[in-house]
Amino acid sequence: MTVKKVDGGYALFSKTTGKKLSKTYKKKDSPELKKREKQVQFFKNDEKHKEDHGGRGIAAKRGTS
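Below the sequence we write its predicted structure tokens.
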């Protein structure tokens, strides 16, 4: 995950899919943004979540052909 500058502030984006994973925050080092990053990391690596979803983590973006 990376924090990128967007109109109106900063947001959290997926490195692999490019999806926006948070709302826009005013400051890059905002506590709310750091909290959201921890939440996403938790669900990305959580074993119970993977069990409930067929052994997969967060679904990857499918390519268009």
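The CA atoms of residues 3 and 61 lie 19 Å apart.
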